[in-house]
Amino acid sequence: MEKRGIYYIGRLISAQKGIIFENDHYEKIRKVYSIWIRSNVTKDMKNTVTVCNLTENDIIGARKAKKEDYDLICMVMIGLGDHEDAQPGTMLKMLDVLFSKQLETKDKKDLLEAQCGIPMKEERIKEEVETMCSLGQGIYQEGLEQGLEQGLEQGMEQGIEQGVEIGGIKTLIQDNIEENIPISRIIEKLMRRFSLSEEAAREKIDFYKNEALAVN
What we know:
By secondary structure, the chain is mainly alpha-helical.
C-alpha cells in the first residue's frame, strides 16, 4: 500500500506541469499531501497513524538544502479499528465512527456529538458529517461489488481502494445534486477531498449527473 501511495503522489506531482508551472520552472512545484484511510487492516495496524515524507541526509560535508525545495511529499497512512476501542475525543475515534460499517447514520451522529464534541446542531457541520457517512457507506458498497466480481480476497482489496475514489466521488456528487447544492460548492468539495483539478471536478459532475438522469 505504501508503494501504491508513492505512485499516486508521483502522478500528482508530475501532473502539475502545464497547470502549476510551465517549461522548466520546477521551482514552482507545490507540495503534495496524500492521506490514506485504511479499513480491514491487521491487528497491529488498527488505530494507527503513520507519516512518510522526504528528509535530507548529508553523507559528505554539511551542505543544507532549503527544506521547501525537497520536502514535497507527505503520505499519511491511517489504520482504522473498532470504534469502541479508540480513545474518545481523538481523530481516530472520529474516523472509526464515520467509516464504521456497523453503525447507522443516526448512531454515528450521536457518538460524534457525545464522544468527539462535534455539535450536530450546526447545519454546516451536520451536512459535512452526513456526506462523510455516505462516503463511508459508498466505499463499503463499491468494495463489496468489486469483491463479488473479482473474487473475495483480491476483489475486496481492490474494490475498497477504488471505492475511496469512485464510490466517494459518485456519492458526494449525487447526494449534493439531490440537495440542490450549488455546482461551484460541489466543485470545491471535490477539489479539496479528492485533490482534483477544477476541470476534472467538472467532468466528474457532468458524468455522474448524466448517469443519474439516464437511470431516472
